[in-house]
Design a protein that fits this description.
Elements lengths: L3 E7 L3 H13 L4 E4 L15 E2 L6 H22 L5 E2 L3 E5 L2 H16 L5 E3 L1 H7 L10 E5 L3 E3 L1 H14 L3 E3 L4 E6 L5 E5 L2 E10 L5 H6 L8 E10 L3 H5 L6 E4 L4 E6 L2 E6 L7 E2 L21 H10 L8 E11 L6 E4 L6 E5 L10 H11 L20 H13 L14
Parallel strand pairs: 1-2, 1-12, 2-9, 5-14, 12-20
Antiparallel strand pairs: 3-8, 4-8, 5-7, 6-7, 10-11, 11-12, 13-16, 13-17, 13-18, 14-15, 15-16, 19-20
Length: about 425
């Protein structure tokens, strides 16, 4: 690792690597990314990889739209490799008049940025997803360009492109402290030596509050456990000639997609969610998962069995239970840190794969002082120390448990 750099990024997950790539694309290539494990350690590696366009926040709608284009079009063009993005489309199912009005609002946001999104009938939905029943549904939203991606593949490709452009990655190298120098630069202390940087970016994911403490700053987020399961193969899925769409159902508070010839199902329980490590994570925590706790998910899994009858016919092969970061309003924490020059936040993503494209806009902010999007709803300075642990925990749990609940007026929710 070299001893000086224009930018040091702390954290090698989806957000940190995306920023490294986009800084190089924007013209800054004197960049060093430091990761205490390997790239995608933390939350990125175990993510379900969903990339939806359904957003209640206009800025995030643009970010999600760009992210999908990045994975599906730009990366294949840059690498010469086939796209790893599964453009399956998605269905979103609602059951009330209020949800229908909410969906209409979301459609208008999506269409405004050029993203195709429209209602389909139950009959049309049954053709799009023949493994699901739509009894009782009032409204069904179809987004053709939605899908999912393998997180490790896209992060690895982005890192390779950035390194070709001059960026450097220092893996298995933990940052232990950060000193603010009289020159205004930062001395980043690591296990493999020190590096002085003009800019430092906190992309530490689950560890970002602890990174912030190194410079006397504060990051208001909470780590919550999120589970999804993968089933054994289903013979009817094996017969399909086209991959099933990602389907989200408000009555089950779950996302459902195809994984191989089986189902991948992830409920966001509307009660009983579990925060973890409120006092901070042990630095040795890397690619660990928790033991599956399907009992906690049973009310929502039982509903999934009703709307996806084939789910009853197969066993469960894998349960993933890992940490995901959540902020009080479930929006990202992006931008300058209050009171510090050239120290930036890029953390707090609850769906970080879909929001990887935020790296483009933070790169613009760092280099040009502004972005082409209004970043007010994501600006990390919207919170300060008044958002204490009790507040953050209460609101983060609320955000998690309302993942599939209808938005209300004047609420900048990302889902």
């Amino acid at each position: 690792m070299k001893t000086h750099a224009q930018v040091v990024i702390i954290g090698g997950g989806s957000l940190g690597v995306n920023l490294m790539y986009h800084l190089c694309e924007e013209g800054w290539n004197d960049v060093v990314l430091i990761e205490k494990g390997e790239l995608t350690s933390g939350s990125t590696w175990h993510a379900a990889g969903l990339c939806p366009n359904f957003n209640g926040n206009h800025t995030l709608s643009s970010i999600h739209d760009y992210t999908i284009k990045l994975y599906d079009k730009i990366l294949p063009q840059k690498t010469g490799l086939p796209s790893s993005f599964h453009k399956t489309g998605s269905l979103r199912v609602g059951y009330t008049e209020a949800e229908e009005q909410w969906f209409r609002n979301i459609i208008s946001r999506a269409n405004h940025i050029g993203c195709e999104m429209h209602f389909v009938s139950k009959e049309e939905a049954a053709i799009i997803n023949p493994m699901m029943t739509f009894d009782g549904a009032r409204c069904i939203l179809f987004t053709p360009n939605d899908g999912h991606v393998d997180p490790t593949t896209v992060v690895t490709q982005l890192a390779q492109l950035a390194k070709k452009n001059g960026a450097e990655v220092s893996s298995f190298n933990r940052v232990t402290d950060i000193n603010i120098l009289p020159s205004g630069e930062y001395e980043v202390i690591t296990e493999q030596g020190n590096i002085i940087a003009q800019h430092v970016v906190n992309a530490g994911g689950c560890f970002s509050p602890q990174v912030a403490e190194m410079v006397g700053a504060y990051v208001p987020l909470v780590n919550l456990q999120h589970q999804y399961l993968i089933t054994e193969n289903h013979p009817e899925i094996a017969k399909l000639t086209k991959e099933l769409p990602v389907t989200r159902d408000s009555s089950a508070a779950s996302y459902i997609r195809q994984e191989g010839d089986g189902f991948l199902i992830g409920p966001y329980e509307t009660r009983g969610s579990k925060p973890w490590a409120l006092s901070g994570l042990d630095w040795s925590f890397d690619r660990e998962l928790f033991e599956g706790d399907l009992e906690r998910l049973m009310p929502w899994l039982e509903r999934c069995m009703e709307i996806v009858p084939g789910f009853q016919e197969v066993g469960i092969s894998t349960v993933i239970n890992g940490l995901i970061t959540h902020t009080p309003d479930d929006n990202l924490l992006v931008g300058p840190v209050s009171g510090l020059r050239n120290f930036w936040n890029l953390c707090g993503a609850s769906i970080g794969i879909a929001q990887g494209g935020i790296g483009k806009y933070l790169a613009q902010w760092m280099i040009h002082g502004q972005t082409e999007l209004n970043m007010a709803s994501l600006d990390s300075r919207r919170f300060d120390r008044w958002a204490d642990q009790k507040y953050c925990t209460t609101r983060a749990i609320e955000s998690y448990e309302r993942m599939y609940s209808m938005g209300v007026p004047n609420e900048n929710r990302p889902h």
